[in-house]
Amino acid sequence: MSYIGKSVKRVEDKRFITGKGNYTDDIKLPNMTAGIFVRSPYAHAKIKSVDISAAESSPGVVKVFTGEDIAASGINGVPCGWQVNFKNGDTMKEPPHPLLVKDKVLHMGDAVAFIIAENYAQAKDAVEKVVVDYENLDAVTDPEEAAKGGAPLVHDDAPGNVCFDWELGDPKDEVAAALANSHHVTTLDLTNQRVVPNAIEPRSAIGHYEDAGDKFTLYTTSQNPHLTRLLLCAFVLGIPEHKVRVVAPDVGGGFGSKIFHYTEEAMVIWASREINRPIKWTAERSESFLTDAHGRDHKTHVQMGFDKDGKITALQSTTFANLGAYLSTFAPAVPTYLHGTLMQGLYTSPKINVDVTGVFTHTNAVDAYRGAGRPEATYQLERLMDLAALEMGMDPIELRKINFIPKFDGVNEPGYATRVALQYDSGDYHGVVDKALEMVGYEAFRKEQASLDNGKLLGIGFSTYIEACGIAPSAVVGALGARAGLFESAQVRVQPTGKVSVYSGSHSHGQGHETTFAQVVADRLGIPLEDVEIVHGDSEAVAFGMGTYGSRSLAVGGSAIVKSIDKVIEKGAKIAAHKLESRVEDLEYAEGKWTVKGTDKSISFGDVSLTAYVPHDYPADLEPGLDFSSFYDPANFTYPFGCHVAIVEVDKETGQVKLKRFIAVDDVGNIINPMIVEGQIHGGLAQGIGQALFEGTVYSDSGTLMNASFMDYSMPRADDLPNFEVDRTVTPCPHNPLGVKGAGEAGCIGSTPAVVNAVIDALWKGGHEVKDIQMPLISERVWNAMQNGSSN
Amino acid sequence: MNITTKVNGKEIAREIDDRTMLSTFLREELSLTGTHIGCDTSGCGACTVLLNGKAVKSCTVLAARVDGEEVTTIEGMSNGSLHPLQEGFKEEHGLQCGFCTPGMIMTAADLLSRNSNPSEQEIRESLEGNFCRCTGYHNIVKAVQYAADKMNG
């Protein structure tokens, strides 16, 4: 029976819909204590003194640690996992991120003390009794301001607050000359505002030291427990890796924010040994706002040149990327190799230069958030395309089509080499656009738009995108500064009865791996889905893993599973040949059995499995057992693409935007479970639309995060969104065994510019030639844009 | 203080700290960890339970408040077989990470008890106190429609 391509209902659902999920905060260990951090209310301040005496004697308090204790223990802090070099070759500035700050806090929420008490309420009481004497200092939160001379310094050894400067593509002067010779140049100054991932499950970590075996267990809300273990052991605490077990049980959403190794994880592990008891820390929502790595926060000046026919001539993109006060695990990679390399989009641009300055500010760290760099690149390109079409009086789809890279499958035609370091695997960009236009009813829409007369302006916005995912070939990312490989591992253990346990290094926190991976295994082995179990998230069960992010689980983790299955079938064939008294080359494997070609002689998968573990009548030169591990390192990134279309209505009187329709046609390669893929697209769309219309941090001049709660930070709710109209084309990935590309980020990458473009289009149709409105497009901003006409 | 309450049909008597929130009481005292805490400020709805049949956000209800009252949590929704809402969430792929799911199901249960045949817009409006960050709500709406259809026979 075939499972590939079927919308199999999820096997993991039962525990979640019955309240039996097992999230980190649900775990109770005997003798467990509760930990709470005392956090700075200031963005930039000297710590003159920390008085913990009253807290220490507060009822139920077990122990209070301060930055002095951490400094005395010799712990330097949490490291960064990706190194970017300055243009001149110097290494980026890399100040350590301490577990607790001793001298100077650098962002609101920086931790200064850790209180451990018998229970949460007692720890909470004691927090109030810690007296920290701060000397408040001037702060800077905007990356462009921070990089100007004279701004308050975040780190003394990072002059001008610059972490690195970086460049990719053609020489700047050649791009400038091409722009100068262009028939038309479209220019935008864009702020891709800072957003908060806000997984609904707050981060949580339990540190459990057991002195009997000198062993540690960390339960944590992580997208990649093995990498956390590696960083924690080798770089933060210097604990032998085999003495630490990291478990990421059910995890309630990540969206990037749970990729990284956080200081709190190291704190609970270190402190649990100090007090020899388990400690649980769970973030409050306001703490999540202040300390979960944020996303985006780019300020960009971008120019695209066109010839008289609308062909792109050149692109210059210059960005100040906010990294926050400390470097999170993958922070330097996001605005550079995950952003600059995507700046060609789907187009045959002849000249491109991308210039990025990574900047420290007195804010929480910024790192990968769903899409990570690719939404920032797409936002520039796709805003430029729709605006250029308006400026030049062209149709936005026609403008794109004349610039599209022609169709290529990556097999008969080679991959497409861009000017910014990538080799696209396969693509058919006209296909997604044509399908989307058909779904929209484009011609009819334009007629309706022109005739609408109800106090509203109707607008349509387009976005086409390409992303690099299936991250990533280890040698390539290593050359680009990654301090880790980005392969994946999988063990396929066939039990004697023919049931199959798969141990995957990919982590599922909503993606449905327990179903999708099982479909792959059941399909390839020709066995019932119920006979397959997927295990993940425990470093003691799974040999190794690089985790889930960058839409990589199926493309990389799934491919590792396929490799192991192939080994199982190969060995199984030898056993089958022996039992059938045949030759291996005379056998074929299908529907769960080996058959001697052209005969009815066959042996089932279950009989072969049993023989492997009860090897009484067995090939002399073969080991018993049927259990294989594989590591899969991809040959290239994968390159999903798509076309997104937003239709909005703007109220002329109030500027209120209503999203009327959203159409997404995505090509994510082959599909194992369409239901799950569509779910991934839906979720991505909601987050991308959220950035366009609702979300964004507000920092005060002094560095206070003003909207650090769900009462102040707006996110899409059920009645803010329409039903999505989602469809797909299929262009298989030519370089992995499943032909899959990845679907997790697509929705979030394509949707944001489509929505903003739609509002701009509506305003132009109303006679307001506005070039840009700062996201989120709240009614006040849209109304102001209409009042100010083209002056933006 | 002492409270006596009925949770998922069972009589419970406990001595609690006066300030204990219902969410904490359910999770810590009764180990009913299906009720999740996403924000502690009534913003996300992950902690939604039924209090005398009506949806409340248990993170901002004192446990003392349920003395003499009746509470239903996600664990009390299935008796042997899945509730139509639980079935709907599975059939329509109305959940991904599962963290908001219990709160969504309890909120939808309240809706369906008041309105057995809600429109899409009514479903969306009734769920606006519950955040989901995974699904974009698309399939959650379908899940509630599935349950309504099933309950209406």
List keywords for this structure.
heterodimer, A: 792 residues, alpha+beta, Aldehyde Oxidoreductase, domain 3, Aldehyde Oxidoreductase, domain 4, 3 domains, seven-stranded mixed beta sheet, five-stranded mixed beta sheet, 28% helix, globular, B: 153 residues, Ubiquitin-like (UB roll), DNA polymerase, domain 1, 15% strand
Describe the secondary structure blueprint for this structure.
The complex is a heterodimer of chains A (792) and B (153).
Chain A: H1 13-17, E1 33-39, E2 45-51, H2 53-56, E3 61-66, H3 67-73, E4 104-105, E5 111-117, H4 120-127, E6 131-136, H5 143-147, E7 162-169, H6 172-180, E8 184-195, E9 204-210, E10 215-220, H7 225-237, E11 244-247, H8 263-275, E12 279-282, H9 285-291, E13 295-306, E14 312-324, E15 352-360, H10 374-392, H11 396-403, E16 416-417, E17 423-424, H12 429-440, H13 442-451, E18 456-466, H14 474-479, E19 488-494, E20 500-504, H15 513-525, E21 532-536, H16 553-580, E22 587-590, E23 593-596, E24 602-604, H17 605-613, E25 627-632, E26 641-651, E27 657-667, H18 674-693, E28 724-728, H19 746-765, H20 779-787
Parallel strand pairs in A: 1-12, 10-11, 14-15, 20-21, 27-28
Antiparallel strand pairs in A: 1-5, 2-4, 2-6, 3-5, 7-15, 8-13, 9-10, 9-12, 13-14, 16-17, 18-26, 19-20, 19-25, 22-23, 23-24, 26-27
Chain B: E1 2-7, E2 10-15, H1 22-29, E3 48-51, E4 54-57, E5 70-72, H2 84-91, H3 101-114, H4 120-126, H5 138-151
Parallel strand pairs in B: 1-5
Antiparallel strand pairs in B: 1-2, 3-4, 3-5
Helix pairs in contact in B: 2-5
